[in-house]
Amino acid sequence: MGIPHVDVKAQYAPLMDQLKAAFADTLESGRFIFGPEVEAFEREAAAYLGCAETVSCANGTDALVLAMDALDIGPGDEVICPAFTFYATAEAIARRGATPVFADIDPVSLNIDPAEVARKITANTKAIMPVHLFGRPAPLAEIQAFGLPVIEDSAQAFGAAGIATSVVSTFSFFPTKNLFALGDGGLIGVNDPAVAERLRMLRFHGSRAKKTFEYVGYNSRLDAVQASMLRIFLPHLPTWNTQRREAAGRYAELGLGDLVELPVDEAGHVYHMYCVRSSERDQLAAALGAAGIGFAVYYDPPLHLQPALAYLGYKPGDLPVTEQAALENLCLPMWGGISEAQQAEVVDVLRKASALLPT
Ligand SMILES: *Cc1c(COP(=O)(O)O)cnc(C)c1O
To answer: 292-301 pLDDT, tens per residue?
Structure first.
């Protein structure tokens, strides 16, 4: 019968009537850009995240670019980030004309390793951009202790505990993320009012009052329709994130053996992905594929070895922990509401496949 890697529709299906009503309201209002739905969502998201303000925008990639622009990061500046993350993290740095500097990751959490960050800091380092990878909070306290501005790429971690405490944190509402829109959307959590004001201008052509243009900005906005959908989803996020944590616990109980991920009680992890590691990853993935079970393998090749970033001069071997993770990771079916029966089927296929593997 098949199990998808992520079942977005299973999460919003029970809300269909509410979503249709909200869409009808927007149609009636005739108001599609900015307006009360967008403002209300920004307030509700700030309250949820516990940051001073939020500024919405068109997607998570724009959120990163806008955040760096608002912090005056550009040519000649270095920004330290991981290479085991979605391409947009480093692309946004390069898009600003700044230089992505890759720091290796921790082999267990797969998040950026503060000791590796320390080795990469130079006089030109303008910011550090940790990623809360797969929904697991990066070690923010240690990263913030370097005293440089921190831009949290939180695209995979809406609702994770202890995040969004830095000057800016960026979010994506791409449909597979923990909090999603029914299309593209993005948000920046901000803890500095001057930066928030600048972001509000930058997302609208660098303008405050629509007649004068004070910066060379962007056109990057969250639609009113998407804001109204997000306002319906946001109150369900605690339940969905709890369901993800419970599902992660079940994967462990169902007997993944050596494949099991870190314990579920790890502070704040919201399991955007449930990621296991194996040196036999490709065989396990093939077995899942043959059984009609969705999976994902991430960031292979990692960012420092991507053709668009070859000008940075990295070589294979430069980030050994990252490169090993790219070869070994396997992300299993996970969403808010995946059933125990579905998970049991996944585990069954993996156990049979690993029994067949040479030991
Ligand atoms: C999804 C994602 C982005 C980009 O978000 P979009 O909304 O697709 O532009 C950036 N960084 C990370 C880590 C992501 O997972």
So the answer is: 999 999 999 9
